[in-house]
Amino acid sequence: MKGFEFLIKERENKPRDIGMTMVLDKGLGYESAKSLMEISADYVDYLKFGWGTSVIQDENIIKAKVEMYKDFQIIPYTGGTLFELAYMNNNVDLFFKRANELGFEAIEISNGSTDLSYADKIEYIKQAKDLGFHVLSEVGKKNPALDKDIGLEERVKYMNEELKAGSSKVIVEAREGGKNIGIFDKSGNAKADEVDYILDNISDKNKIIWEAPQKDQQVYFVLNLGSDVSLGNISTEDIISLETIRQGLRGDTLGKLD
């Protein structure tokens, strides 16, 4: 029982398909990760092994963390940069095989840092799906200048095509900083008209994960899209903070949610 259970808003129980929180693991040690999950696992749905961090960590630690996260009903997965690294080295098949050996049942497919074409990206999504992986895909470029070259209509087209190809969730790129990229301006403020356009034209809005690493961005999405919006790139330090925003337990959302 929670400390003040009678004040908690009911949310969909895990495993849930809405109101999901994707957390970024930047290389936590096993004990630190387990301790964190003991107090916050109820509020975490996806756990991304960020970038290529798993390349330089011992395989036994990775396996132990993957299984530990699964024990807490969390889906651990490899970040898109790791897939892109495998693509650059012509090792995608080996990457899929190794991910499976390490216990990952989910992976992210992206082309944010490489010249991987969207047509080839679709084929890799299908391949990963056929291999039995739970696939997440990310739309957008890491370089803000290149990201701006993707028109809004084109961006939504890619999102819909990736969902059709087999992605369980499609992630709207914002990187770890959340500024001057994707739907965020140079100050980190969401462009409301672009958010609305995506929502109006996506095949299933519940399959979107909005990367929102900053607190004000999280507040924006919860106030405008509701507590059951799915948010990503949440730091390990902000798991509890985000849930209090969802629950209307802090000044930013207190008394402002249905």
Describe this structure in words.
- By secondary structure, this protein is an alpha/beta fold.
- The protein is 41% helix and 14% strand.
- The chain contains ten helices and eight strands.
- It has an eight-stranded parallel barrel with strand order 1-2-3-4-5-6-7-8, surrounded by four helices.
- The longest helix has 14 residues.
- The radius of gyration is 18 Å and the shape is globular.
- The model has no long low-confidence stretch (mean pLDDT 96).
State the gist of this model.
With 258 residues, the protein is α/β, with parallel strands linked by helices.
Write the layout of secondary structure elements.
Layout: E1 21-25, H1 30-40, E2 46-49, H2 59-71, E3 75-78, H3 80-88, H4 92-101, E4 106-109, H5 118-130, E5 134-139, H6 144-148, H7 152-165, E6 169-172, H8 192-201, E7 208-211, H9 215-225, E8 231-235, H10 239-247
Parallel strand pairs: 1-2, 1-8, 2-3, 3-4, 4-5, 5-6, 6-7, 7-8
